[in-house]
Automatic annotation (TrEMBL):
Binding site for 5-phospho-alpha-D-ribose 1-diphosphate: 100-101, 104, 126-134
Protein species of origin: Candidatus Methanogaster sp. ANME-2c ERB4
Gene Ontology molecular functions: magnesium ion binding; orotate phosphoribosyltransferase activity
Domain of life: Archaea
Protein name: Orotate phosphoribosyltransferase
Name of the encoding gene: pyrE
E.C. no: 2.4.2.10
Coiled coil ranges: none
Annotated InterPro entries: OPRT, Or_phspho_trans_dom, PRTase-like, PRTase_dom
Entry-linked Pfam families: Pribosyltran (PF00156)
Quaternary structure and partners: Homodimer.
Amino acid sequence: MTLTDKEKLQTIIQKKGLITGNTNTFELASGDKSNFFFDMKMVSMDPEGSELMAKVILDNIQNQDYEYIGGLESGSIPIASVVANKSYGTKRPIPAFFVRKTSKGRGTNKAIEGNLSGNSKVIVVEDVTTKGESVLVAVKALREMGCKVDKVITIVDRLSGAGELLDREGVELISIFTRDDFVV
């Protein structure tokens, strides 16, 4: 049996990105505590893992008219970068950007870095969503810039409210995987 790219990615996440521990071992960005943690940088910065992420994301957005892909630092940076790289040479290359949590206070002092123009249609990418508060920071910053944001694509949704929060903001959450797809 030949595995699909998505199945291969799931296996890599299970082996390299999922860490389990005792009860409430890990503090999440949401402030919640958990006995499992998705360390997606172990996957997004792995040669095979990043390649598979790009393929799976591009398969999900190939027939849509997004002009840019990016998200909140730092989890989205390697993902958006590899998607932009992989899209080069296709009929619709998609440049990347990222949103800073806070501006550096030096240089150009930009809150949004990379290839992005206001009034553009963008898709936001996230490595892991929990409650959705972090990704909402990126969505709001992009909307303030005049960008149209109607979808967020996450590699793993922990099923802890992100979909509902984003829905209230008029944003659809597309999950490549949910926590239920993994043995924790």
